[in-house]
Specification:
- The protein is built from six helices and 24 strands.
- It is an alpha+beta fold.
- The chain folds into three domains: 100 residues, no CATH class; 256 residues, Immunoglobulin-like (Sandwich), CATH 2.60.40; 49 residues, no CATH class.
- α5 links the parallel β19 and β20.
- The chain starts with a strand and ends with a strand.
- The N terminus and C terminus are likely disordered.
Length: 439
């Protein structure tokens, strides 16, 4: 129970008939604004005139002790001068690991050379949290679509190029690698008027443009323009047009779960993060669909096979006040001749925003069963959202008893402080009525 939002439980069946409007209406219950707990966007350091310029003050690294492997090589990276301590403590000794993982995929990792169990998770993202691709065991520098070259002058810098035409798709030449315990930065050179797409999760133009700054962190906010949503996907596709007709596309994925920002500028992209390591994957494409397939199949994995009806049209939003309003939405689609497979409820349906409950004033169980019967008779489906946090009852108020909390506490199902055994409490939607959640 760690995520703010979880996938809903699903109630479904499959028969065909027409949906009928309910005969009962219910009292309107006001809903909270969906932005009530949205965190404010962070101000990127690029907009702070007093912020240190790591590229100007940090020394970079020097590579040495190169050891060739079957599918690439490793090397030591040692800080090339006095620590700059721009935003933390410089890590003096790093490891570079380059691996030709597949014909279309190249992996470049830079991480601290000396790690202990106490600090490994700060720098190395566990595979059980986010898939970590591995090599196919057969691709080498001689058989890869991509090549990796590097230099130590004036400090360690590298570039990734296409073997077919020598085109550089990623190059840190002219810039320094910055690696501190709370700040990492690298800069890649870009072609003029480059076309980059991706870097989710937020709402913005399809093409990001060449003057774009975004700070990424997970925020419980559903619809801010140019702001953060529920997750971070540090992956982009770049497409380069040759003669107005032909084009080549490639992908870059920065596997990192820490807060981060990407600064797209006229001829560069700067990547910064407040933790983790450089865990980069380059995909050769050459078509956009190839890049996306290589990302899905080779890196993050294909989604689980879903029921057929889940691929239909779904309708969901915050603010459906009662079963009557929900039925009116369903009927509106039918009257407009638009096929609706699934209607969702946000947490409006709950009793004071508590999981596994229905509000008896606006979403009573009996009329809800009638609504579901009509929905299922029409071959449609219903999904109620479930929050991943459980309301913590007030132990001094007997009327505040909440069985899911009692059962979870008895089973030790909630996150606890390993030193004291106490629950971790945090604010979620029930804070609107002065209560807490176990997260």
């Amino acid at each position: 129970m760690m995520l703010k939002r979880s996938l809903a439980a699903v109630l479904a069946s499959s028969v065909l008939a027409a949906a009928q409007a309910p005969s009962t209406t219910y009292r309107t219950i006001p809903s909270l604004s969906p932005q009530i707990d949205a965190a404010p966007s962070l101000v990127p350091a690029i907009y702070d005139p007093t912020a240190p310029n790591a590229q100007a003050t940090c020394p970079g690294y020097k590579a040495s002790n190169v050891v060739n492997t079957t599918q690439g090589f490793t090397a030591d990276l040692t800080i090339a001068g006095p620590a700059c301590s721009a935003y933390g403590n410089d890590i003096a000794d790093l490891t570079l690991a380059v691996e030709y993982q597949a014909k279309q995929r190249l992996s470049v990792k830079i991480y601290p050379r000396h790690l202990a169990p106490q600090n490994t998770s700060l720098y190395i993202l566990p595979a059980f949290l986010t898939p970590e691709p591995s090599g196919d065991g057969s691709t080498t520098a001689a058989t890869s679509d991509l090549s990796f070259t590097w230099s130590n002058e004036p400090s360690f810098q590298f570039k990734v190029s296409r073997v077919s035409n020598g085109e550089e798709i990623f190059s840190t030449y002219g810039y320094k690698i910055v690696f501190e315990d709370q700040f990492l930065e690298l800069v890649t050179n870009m072609v003029k008027d480059y076309n980059v797409y991706g870097l989710a999760e937020n709402i913005h133009d399809f093409r990001l443009g060449n003057n774009f700054t975004q700070t990424f962190y997970a925020a419980d906010s559903g619809n801010p323009i140019d702001g953060n949503l529920y997750g971070t996907h540090p992956f982009y596709v770049e497409t380069r047009y040759k003669d107005g007709a032909s084009s080549l596309s490639h992908g870059v994925y920065a596997r990192n779960a820490h807060g981060q920002e990407w600064l797209l500028r006229n001829r560069t992209i700067t990547y910064r993060t407040i933790g983790g390591s450089f865990d980069l994957y380059f995909l050769s494409g050459p078509k956009p669909t190839d890049v996306i397939a290589q990302y899905q199949k080779g890196i993050v994995g294909l989604p689980a096979l879903q029921m057929y009806w889940t691929f239909g049209f779904h309708q969901c939003r915050w603010g459906y006040e009662n079963w009557t309003v929900l039925q009116e939405v369903v009927d509106g689609y039918a009257n407009a001749g638009i096929q609706l497979e699934v209607i969702w409820n946000d947490i409006d349906y709950m009793n004071q925003y508590r999981d596994f409950t229905n509000g008896e004033l606006n979403y009573p169980v009996g009329p809800g069963q009638e609504f579901l019967a009509r929905l299922h008779a029409a071959g449609q489906h219903y999904v109620p959202i479930i929050d991943s946090n459980i309301y913590a009852e007030n132990p001094s108020n007997a009327s505040d008893a909440y069985e899911p909390f009692q059962r979870g506490a008895a089973m030790s199902a909630f996150i606890r402080n390993p030193g004291t055994g106490d629950f971790y409490y945090g604010d979620n939607w029930p804070v609107s009525i002065g209560s807490l959640n176990i997260s």
